[in-house]
Design goal:
By secondary structure, the protein is of the alpha+beta class. 19% of the residues lie in helices and 26% in strands. It has 3 domains: 185 residues, endopeptidase fold (from Nostoc punctiforme) (Alpha-Beta Complex), CATH 3.90.1720; 145 residues, SH3 type barrels (Roll), CATH 2.30.30.40; 83 residues, SH3 type barrels. It contains 10 helices and 22 strands.
C-alpha cells in the first residue's frame, strides 16, 4: 500500500509553493493503450509461460516472508504466536488521528480500540479454522469500520484501512474480536481484521483447494459482476475484481436453470456463500458471456499487460482498496493477477521481493546508472520509489512514461517551475518530470525495478 511519497525524509515542498500547470511532455494520445501497443515491435510475445509463472510464484512462496502459506501454519495455534501477529498489525499510527466528524480521537477511544482486540481472550492454544471470503471485504487495522484520518479536513485516506479480500480468497481464522463481529485472519498476502459475516468457515481441504479447482474463469475487467439472481442475494450482482478466479461448471446441464435463468448466454461458476451459522456452502451463479472474463489466465504479453492496466485509467485512488477501488500496489497486483502472477501486497514488500528479474538501487548508484535503467524500461516493468509503484508503458521522444495509481502528484514544468495537484487516480505521466515531496525527481528516489518475465 502506498501514499505517493507523502512522507519522504527531507524538506517537503509546501503546497502553496506549487503552481497549477499542464504536465510537461504529456500528450492526449498517451492516455490510450492502443498508442503504446502500436509502438511495440513484438506486442504478442509471451514474456513468461504458465509453467514459468508457476515457478516464479513458487519461488516467492518459498522465499518471500510477506507471503503466507496457510497450509503450514502452526497446529494448534499457540497463544503467543497469535498475540504477536495481532499486536504487529493493530498498532496506532504516530501522530494525531481524527474521526469521521473531524474530531480528534480521544484517549478513551484509543483504549476502546485496544480493548476490542480481546488479547486476554486468546486461548493457550487453538486449532486453526479456515474459511472462504464471500464478498469483497475490507481488511482493517482494528476491528472497526470507523475511519481514522491524519487530518480533520482530508477524508480520502483512512489510516485504519489496510487492504481488501475478494470472493473465493482463503483465510485462516486466528482470533475473534471482543464483540464477535470481526475476525483476525491470515490470507496469503496479509494479516488483518475482516468483518465476520464476510467469511464462511469450512473444511480445511475444501477451503485450501478452492483456488486450485479447474477449469476456471478469470475476471479480466476492472470489475465484473455476476448475473442478478433475485432471491439469492449472496451471488446476485456480486462484484468480482480483476484477477478473481472462479471455478467453472462445464458439466451443468444447459436445460437446467441457475437461479431462475437458463445458462444459454452465461457461464456457470461456483461461488462461496455463508449460511446463517457462518458455515461454507458452494452455490452456482451465472457470469454473462458479455462480461470481461477469460477461460484461464491471460497470456503474459506486452499488449495484454498494457490492455489490462489501461482498464483502470481514471479510476479514483483508494488507499488500501478503499472506496471499492485500489491504491498503487493494489493496482499493479490486480493487473498481474489476471495473468496468474503473484505479487506481495505492499510496495515495500514488492520492491524487495526476491526475483531473478529484480534490479536494486542504493545511495551508491548515481544519476547516470539510474537514467540508463529508466531508458531500458520495457512495458510492464514495475518501478519502485519509497511508498509508490509505477508500471512502465513505453517511451516517447526518449522519455519514459508510466501508468500508476497516485494520490498527490508533483512535477516539473517546461519552464522549470514545480507544479502539483491531487491526481487521485490512475493516470499516465512522464517518469522523468515527476517529483517527490522533497523536490527531487522520482528517478533519484528509485529503490528497485522488477520485471516479471524473461531474466535480464
Amino acid at each position: 500500500m502506498a501514499l505517493a511519497l507523502a512522507w519522504l525524509p527531507g524538506a517537503a515542498i509546501a503546497r502553496d509553493a506549487l503552481v497549477p500547470g499542464a504536465m510537461a511532455g504529456l500528450q492526449p494520445d498517451a492516455m490510450s493503450a492502443a498508442h503504446w501497443i502500436d509502438a511495440l515491435a513484438a506486442p504478442d510475445q509471451v514474456l513468461l509461460d504458465h509453467a514459468g509463472i508457476q515457478a516464479r510464484n513458487a519461488r516467492l512462496r518459498a522465499l518471500d516472508p510477506s507471503i503466507h502459506d496457510l497450509a503450514t501454519l502452526p497446529h494448534p495455534l499457540p497463544r503467543a504466536w497469535v498475540r504477536e501477529r495481532i499486536i504487529a498489525r493493530s498498532s496506532l499510527p504516530a501522530g494525531m488521528l481524527y474521526d469521521a466528524r473531524g474530531d480528534a480521537l480521544t484517549a478513551r477511544a484509543r483504549r476502546a480500540l485496544q480493548q476490542a482486540l480481546a488479547l486476554d481472550a486468546i486461548p493457550l492454544q487453538q486449532p486453526a479454522r479456515h474459511g472462504l471470503v464471500v464478498r469483497r471485504a475490507d481488511l482493517r487495522t482494528f476491528p472497526t469500520a470507523a475511519p481514522a484520518h491524519s487530518s480533520p479536513h482530508q477524508r480520502d485516506i483512512d489510516r485504519f484501512q489496510e487492504s481488501a479480500l475478494f470472493p473465493g480468497d482463503a483465510v485462516a481464522v486466528l482470533h475473534r474480536s471482543r464483540d464477535g463481529e470481526w475476525l483476525f485472519v491470515a490470507s496469503e498476502r496479509y494479516l488483518a481484521w475482516i468483518a465476520a459475516d464476510a467469511v464462511a468457515l469450512g473444511q480445511r481441504d475444501v477451503v485450501l483447494g478452492h483456488a486450485q479447482r479447474t477449469p476456471h474463469l478469470v475476471a479480466t475487467g476492472a470489475s465484473v459482476r455476476s448475473a442478478v439472481a433475485p432471491g439469492e442475494p449472496q451471488v446476485s450482482a456480486l462484484p468480482l475484481d480483476m484477477g478473481v478466479r472462479l471455478p467453472l461448471r462445464v458439466d451443468w446441464p444447459p436445460e437446467q436453470p441457475v437461479n431462475g435463468q437458463l445458462p444459454l448466454a452465461a457461464h456457470v461458476v461456483d461461488l462461496p456463500t455463508r449460511d446463517v451459522h457462518g458455515r461454507l456452502a458452494i452455490a452456482p451463479a451465472l457470469i454473462p458471456r458479455a462480461a470481461d472474463v477469460t477461460a484461464g489466465y491471460l497470456p503474459l504479453t506486452p499488449a495484454n499487460l498494457l490492455t489490462q492496466a489501461f482498464k483502470f485509467l481514471g479510476e479514483r485512488y483508494g488507499w488500501g482498496h478503499a472506496h471499492g477501488t485500489r491504491d498503487c500496489s493494489g493496482f499493479v497486483s490486480e493487473v498481474y493477477r489476471s495473468f496468474g502472477v503473484l505479487l506481495p501486497r505492499n510496495t515495500g514488500d514488492q520492491a524487495a521481493s526476491p526475483a531473478p528479474e529484480r534490479i536494486a538501487f542504493g545511495p551508491e548508484d548515481g544519476h547516470a546508472a539510474r537514467l540508463a535503467a529508466v531508458r531500458a524500461l520495457q512495458p510492464g516493468d514495475l518501478v519502485y520509489i519509497p511508498g509508490h509503484v509505477m508500471m512502465a508503458v513505453g517511451h516517447r521522444d526518449g522519455v519514459a512514461h508510466v501508468i500508476h495509481d497516485i494520490h498527490d502528484g508533483r512535477w516539473r514544468q517546461d519552464d522549470g517551475r514545480m507544479a502539483g495537484g491531487r491526481l487521485n487516480g490512475v493516470v499516465v505521466t512522464p517518469l522523468e518530470s515527476m517529483l517527490a515531496s522533497d523536490g527531487r525527481s522520482y528517478i533519484e528516489h528509485m529503490v528497485a525495478i522488477q520485471r516479471v518475465g524473461a531474466t535480464r
